[in-house]
Structure formats: C-alpha cells, structure tokens
Design brief:
- A two-stranded antiparallel sheet has the order 1-2.
- The longest helix is centred in the middle third of the chain and has 18 residues.
- It starts with a helix and ends with a helix.
- About 10% of the residues are buried.
- It has about 80 residues and is mainly alpha-helical.
- A hairpin with a 2-residue loop joins strand 1 and strand 2.
- It is built from three helices and two strands, in the order H-H-E-E-H.
- The protein has one domain.
C-alpha cells in the first residue's frame, strides 16, 4: 500500500490513477468477487483520500470461464479509457 500511496501522491490527481481488478475469472461466485472488491476498496481507503466516483473494472483472460460460470471482463472499457486519454 505504500507504493500505491507514493504513486498516487506523485500524480497529484485522482483522474490520473486508475485501479483494475485482475484475475476476475478465479472467483467461484459473484459474492466472492464482491467481498474481494470491498476488501481492496477498504485497503485503498486507508492510504488514499476519498475519491468521488471510484471505479475498479474487472479483467480476466479472454474466453476463459471462471469457476462459477462466465466471468466479467471489462477489458474493452479499459482500452477505451486509454484511447480517450
């Protein structure tokens, strides 16, 4: 978390730092994925100032089915965000 805080402080703007949850295909249920996202968000909240409209897209290997069925993959959203910057 120290590295995350240092990177965030160097950028001086919440609009320049984006967080992505990788390995979205390893969760057995949506509840497991949600619990993990909550833990990540709580950990980030201890080192970063409050952020308005925080989002954390989920990516997984294309075509790979998760343990609990088809997984969420928001890689296209991330690509679009990179192209608009």
């Amino acid at each position: 978390m120290k590295i995350v805080k240092e990177l965030y402080d160097q950028q001086q703007s919440e609009n320049k730092v984006h967080f992505v949850m990788t390995k979205g295909d390893v969760f057995e249920t949506d509840d497991d994925r949600l619990k993990c996202m909550c833990q990540i968000t709580q950990s980030l909240a201890t080192v970063l100032p409050p952020m308005h409209g925080f989002s954390m897209p989920i990516i997984s290997l294309p075509g790979k089915q998760g343990r609990g069925g088809p997984s969420i993959n928001q890689i296209d959203d991330i690509v679009q965000l990179i192209h608009t910057k």
